[in-house]
Design a protein that fits this description.
Blueprint lengths: L2 H16 L29 E2 L13 E2 L10 H7 L2 E2 L7 E12 L8 E10 L7 E6 L7 E2 L4 E2 L3
Parallel strand pairs: 1-7, 2-6
Antiparallel strand pairs: 3-8, 4-5, 5-6
Length: about 150
Protein backbone atom coordinates (compact mmCIF):
# COMPACT_ATOMS: atom_id res chain seq x y z
CA UNK A 1 0.00 0.00 0.00
CA UNK A 2 1.42 3.38 -0.98
CA UNK A 3 1.63 6.36 1.32
CA UNK A 4 -0.86 8.17 -0.92
CA UNK A 5 -3.39 5.31 -0.56
CA UNK A 6 -2.95 5.28 3.21
CA UNK A 7 -3.45 9.06 3.44
CA UNK A 8 -6.56 8.91 1.23
CA UNK A 9 -7.97 6.08 3.40
CA UNK A 10 -7.33 8.05 6.59
CA UNK A 11 -8.92 11.19 5.12
CA UNK A 12 -11.97 9.23 3.96
CA UNK A 13 -12.39 7.61 7.39
CA UNK A 14 -12.07 11.00 9.10
CA UNK A 15 -14.64 12.55 6.76
CA UNK A 16 -17.05 9.69 7.32
CA UNK A 17 -16.56 9.86 11.09
CA UNK A 18 -17.39 13.57 11.00
CA UNK A 19 -20.80 12.66 9.56
CA UNK A 20 -21.61 10.31 12.42
CA UNK A 21 -23.03 11.56 15.68
CA UNK A 22 -21.74 10.00 18.88
CA UNK A 23 -25.02 8.16 19.43
CA UNK A 24 -26.57 5.51 17.22
CA UNK A 25 -30.14 5.97 16.00
CA UNK A 26 -30.54 2.21 15.45
CA UNK A 27 -33.14 1.01 17.95
CA UNK A 28 -33.11 -2.78 17.62
CA UNK A 29 -29.51 -3.92 18.22
CA UNK A 30 -29.03 -6.84 20.64
CA UNK A 31 -25.46 -8.11 20.39
CA UNK A 32 -26.33 -10.83 22.92
CA UNK A 33 -28.75 -12.45 20.45
CA UNK A 34 -27.79 -15.99 19.45
CA UNK A 35 -25.97 -16.54 16.16
CA UNK A 36 -28.13 -17.53 13.21
CA UNK A 37 -28.38 -21.18 12.22
CA UNK A 38 -27.15 -21.82 8.68
CA UNK A 39 -29.08 -24.37 6.63
CA UNK A 40 -27.60 -26.61 3.91
CA UNK A 41 -29.07 -24.45 1.12
CA UNK A 42 -27.03 -21.40 2.22
CA UNK A 43 -29.96 -19.71 3.95
CA UNK A 44 -30.52 -18.74 7.53
CA UNK A 45 -33.14 -20.59 9.54
CA UNK A 46 -35.46 -17.62 10.04
CA UNK A 47 -38.54 -18.61 12.05
CA UNK A 48 -40.09 -15.46 13.45
CA UNK A 49 -42.31 -12.94 11.66
CA UNK A 50 -42.02 -9.31 12.73
CA UNK A 51 -45.19 -7.46 13.65
CA UNK A 52 -43.43 -4.07 13.53
CA UNK A 53 -44.01 -2.43 10.12
CA UNK A 54 -40.73 -0.49 10.54
CA UNK A 55 -38.59 -3.65 10.84
CA UNK A 56 -36.23 -3.79 7.87
CA UNK A 57 -37.95 -0.93 6.05
CA UNK A 58 -36.74 1.89 8.34
CA UNK A 59 -33.05 2.75 8.75
CA UNK A 60 -33.53 2.95 12.52
CA UNK A 61 -34.92 -0.63 12.60
CA UNK A 62 -32.70 -2.57 10.16
CA UNK A 63 -32.30 -6.32 9.92
CA UNK A 64 -29.14 -6.92 12.00
CA UNK A 65 -27.39 -9.95 10.47
CA UNK A 66 -23.79 -9.59 11.78
CA UNK A 67 -20.72 -11.02 10.04
CA UNK A 68 -17.41 -12.45 11.21
CA UNK A 69 -14.82 -10.65 9.06
CA UNK A 70 -14.55 -8.02 6.37
CA UNK A 71 -13.99 -10.55 3.55
CA UNK A 72 -17.58 -11.81 4.06
CA UNK A 73 -19.37 -8.52 4.52
CA UNK A 74 -22.33 -9.35 2.23
CA UNK A 75 -22.50 -13.10 2.94
CA UNK A 76 -24.93 -12.95 5.88
CA UNK A 77 -27.16 -10.44 4.09
CA UNK A 78 -27.41 -12.90 1.17
CA UNK A 79 -28.08 -15.83 3.51
CA UNK A 80 -30.90 -13.84 5.08
CA UNK A 81 -32.39 -12.66 1.79
CA UNK A 82 -32.21 -16.21 0.38
CA UNK A 83 -34.59 -17.31 3.15
CA UNK A 84 -37.30 -14.82 2.17
CA UNK A 85 -40.13 -14.90 -0.37
CA UNK A 86 -42.71 -12.43 -1.66
CA UNK A 87 -46.10 -11.90 0.04
CA UNK A 88 -47.59 -15.02 -1.55
CA UNK A 89 -44.46 -17.15 -1.58
CA UNK A 90 -43.08 -15.69 -4.83
CA UNK A 91 -39.38 -16.15 -5.52
CA UNK A 92 -37.46 -13.00 -4.58
CA UNK A 93 -34.94 -11.21 -6.69
CA UNK A 94 -32.69 -8.79 -4.85
CA UNK A 95 -29.86 -6.41 -5.57
CA UNK A 96 -27.75 -4.19 -3.40
CA UNK A 97 -28.46 -0.54 -4.12
CA UNK A 98 -26.06 1.29 -1.84
CA UNK A 99 -24.46 1.70 1.55
CA UNK A 100 -25.94 4.46 3.63
CA UNK A 101 -26.64 5.85 7.03
CA UNK A 102 -23.32 5.89 8.95
CA UNK A 103 -23.60 5.13 12.65
CA UNK A 104 -21.13 4.41 15.48
CA UNK A 105 -20.31 0.76 16.19
CA UNK A 106 -17.52 -1.09 17.97
CA UNK A 107 -17.83 -4.10 15.64
CA UNK A 108 -16.27 -2.62 12.48
CA UNK A 109 -12.71 -3.92 12.05
CA UNK A 110 -11.49 -0.81 10.24
CA UNK A 111 -12.92 1.92 12.43
CA UNK A 112 -15.77 2.93 14.70
CA UNK A 113 -18.27 3.60 11.92
CA UNK A 114 -20.77 1.18 10.43
CA UNK A 115 -22.88 1.59 7.32
CA UNK A 116 -26.20 0.00 6.50
CA UNK A 117 -26.65 -1.89 3.25
CA UNK A 118 -29.77 -1.08 1.23
CA UNK A 119 -31.27 -3.86 -0.89
CA UNK A 120 -34.11 -3.68 -3.38
CA UNK A 121 -36.41 -6.72 -3.35
CA UNK A 122 -38.62 -7.60 -6.27
CA UNK A 123 -40.86 -10.51 -7.30
CA UNK A 124 -43.32 -11.34 -10.07
CA UNK A 125 -46.70 -9.61 -10.06
CA UNK A 126 -47.89 -6.01 -9.71
CA UNK A 127 -46.32 -4.20 -6.75
CA UNK A 128 -43.77 -1.59 -5.86
CA UNK A 129 -40.33 -3.13 -5.13
CA UNK A 130 -39.42 -3.14 -1.43
CA UNK A 131 -36.27 -1.62 0.08
CA UNK A 132 -34.67 -3.30 3.08
CA UNK A 133 -32.00 -1.87 5.36
CA UNK A 134 -29.51 -4.49 6.53
CA UNK A 135 -26.93 -3.98 9.25
CA UNK A 136 -23.95 -6.31 8.88
CA UNK A 137 -22.05 -5.09 11.95
CA UNK A 138 -24.43 -5.80 14.81
CA UNK A 139 -26.89 -8.51 15.84
CA UNK A 140 -30.46 -8.96 16.99
CA UNK A 141 -33.18 -11.50 16.46
CA UNK A 142 -33.57 -11.88 12.70
CA UNK A 143 -37.18 -11.95 11.48
CA UNK A 144 -39.31 -11.81 8.34
CA UNK A 145 -40.42 -8.22 7.65
CA UNK A 146 -44.14 -7.43 7.48
CA UNK A 147 -45.48 -8.15 3.99
CA UNK A 148 -42.92 -10.86 3.14
CA UNK A 149 -42.90 -14.61 3.79
CA UNK A 150 -40.41 -17.43 4.11
CA UNK A 151 -39.22 -19.27 1.03
CA UNK A 152 -40.64 -22.77 0.76
CA UNK A 153 -37.93 -25.40 1.18
Amino acid sequence: MTLRTILISIAAAAALSACVSGKSTIRNINNNAPDMVLLKDNTFAVQTYSTDPRYGYDKDYPVNVFYRDIQNDTLNAQRYLNALAGPNGEKLRYRKLEDCCPYPTKRNEIGGVGMLQVYELDWDGPHKPARLYINIYDKSEVMVPVGLTLRKK
